[in-house]
Design a protein that fits this description.
Elements: E1 2-5, H1 20-27, E2 32-36, H2 47-53, E3 56-58, H3 61-67, E4 70-72, H4 79-82, E5 90-93, H5 101-110, E6 113-116, H6 131-148, E7 170-174, H7 178-189, E8 193-198, H8 201-210, E9 215-219, H9 222-228, E10 234-237, H10 252-255, E11 263-266, E12 287-290, E13 293-296, H11 306-335, H12 337-342, E14 343-346, E15 349-350, H13 353-359
Parallel strand pairs: 1-2, 1-4, 2-3, 4-5, 5-6, 7-8, 7-10, 8-9, 10-11, 11-13
Antiparallel strand pairs: 6-14, 12-13, 14-15
Helix pairs in contact: 1-2, 6-7
Length: about 375
């Protein structure tokens, strides 16, 4: 198979979909890998490293798209890339379709096979290609939240861990999944007073067992959230419904009950956000303020730590990429339920229920193509 790796062009997105080591693994199995010049530079991988691994470097993205049977990316295609995607081409990347209708419609029009990292799902419900970036984003949410709590950045002016004689900051984490667990680890390690809210009692029991004593658990409901947001300094939104829009757990009217300088970090922003006043921001301009509450809603948080993120992501995606390349997308998806769950849009049809529901689009059973 011919695999193309274009350079990411989303604002401040420095990750790359394939490392030189990953390219070498595909090439030694008889596949051809085209990498756009400087695609790996932001993650610390030089053109020379790709060439040494056996990849071929191409100067223009359009040529990479033109030659490739499978495109490997990190972030969803943006508008200037829509026209480069070909009919019947396999595009393997994060799409987050349910949060952005123009992308969904563009991929329907393209006739491509869109296999989304974020909905590749195991039988146990785990999301192997989302987990590594959720781990990064969860840990970063506290790092960034602590920074924006500083007064010069319009936060409350509170140190997350406090000091002897002064209470630490209070951190509220909505969702006890991968994002929430990793956020809690970092917040607890910095000495904050942490509460994790989730609907799943079994998950809360587990977290109560493994977390340190400064992490508390609480069942999530609207009444409890309304009460908790009044006196917490940093609030992390880490709720995920695979492939669908995130539920709005913090509503606009709740902002008026928060203390000035409270910081909200919505990690679910690329799925529409779980905070009603959330809108996607970039690393270049990461925050905005509504009702004296600081909103940090960067849609590609792991892009700020591309070396770590690229290695973590490709550790997870490479086995799937090898399977797709070796067997072709159809056979690979027939044999692997995980990959089959990743199919979102194919040949102009929406084949993932969460996406069709988000925009009231016709739904086609994926079996039609398998």
């Amino acid at each position: 198979m011919i695999i193309g790796v274009p350079k990411e062009i989303k604002n401040n997105e420095n990750r790359v979909a394939l490392t030189p080591a990953g390219a070498q693994e595909l090439i030694k199995r008889g596949h051809t890998v085209y990498v756009e010049t400087n695609a790996g530079e932001g993650s610390g991988f030089s053109n020379e490293e790709y060439l040494k691994a056996g990849a071929q470097m191409i100067d223009k993205a359009a040529e990479v798209f033109s030659l490739a049977e499978m495109i490997m990316k990190v972030k969803e295609p943006i508008e200037q890339e829509y026209k480069l995607i070909k009919k019947d081409q396999l595009v393997f990347t994060y799409f987050h379709f349910a949060s952005y209708e123009p992308l969904t419609k563009a991929m329907i029009t393209s006739g491509a096979i869109c296999l989304a990292y974020e909905t590749v799902e195991r039988v146990d419900g785990s999301l192997p290609l989302l987990i590594p970036m959720s781990e990064v984003a969860g840990r970063m949410s506290i790092q960034e939240g602590a920074k924006y709590l500083e007064k010069p950045l319009k936060g409350r002016g509170i140190l997350l861990g406090g000091v002897p004689g002064v209470k630490p900051a209070k951190v509220l984490i909505l969702g006890g999944g991968v994002v929430g667990t990793n956020a809690a680890k970092i917040a607890a390690g910095m000495g904050a007073d942490v509460t994790i809210m989730d609907l799943n009692l079994n998950r809360l029991r587990y977290l109560d067992d493994v977390m340190p004593k400064n992490v508390h658990t609480m069942v999530s409901n609207e009444y409890a959230i309304r009460e908790m947001v009044k006196d917490h300094d940093l609030i992390i939104g880490g709720v995920l419904v695979p492939g669908a829009k995130a539920p709005k757990l913090i509503t606009k009217d709740m902002l008026k009950t928060m203390r000035p300088g409270t910081v909200l970090v919505d990690v679910a922003v690329d799925q529409g956000g779980c905070i009603e006043t959330c809108r996607p921001t970039t690393h270049e301009d990461p925050t905005y303020i509504i009702d004296d509450v600081v909103h940090y809603c960067v849609a590609n948080m792991p892009g700020a730590v591309p070396y770590t993120s690229t290695l973590a992501l490709t550790n997870a995606t490479l086995p799937y990429a090898i399977k797709l390349a070796n067997q072709g997308w159809k056979k690979a998806c027939q044999e692997s339920l995980e990959l089959r769950n990743g199919l979102n849009v194919m040949f102009g049809d929406v084949v993932y229920k969460g996406v069709s529901d988000a925009f009231n689009l016709p739904y086609t059973d994926v079996k039609k193509y398998l």
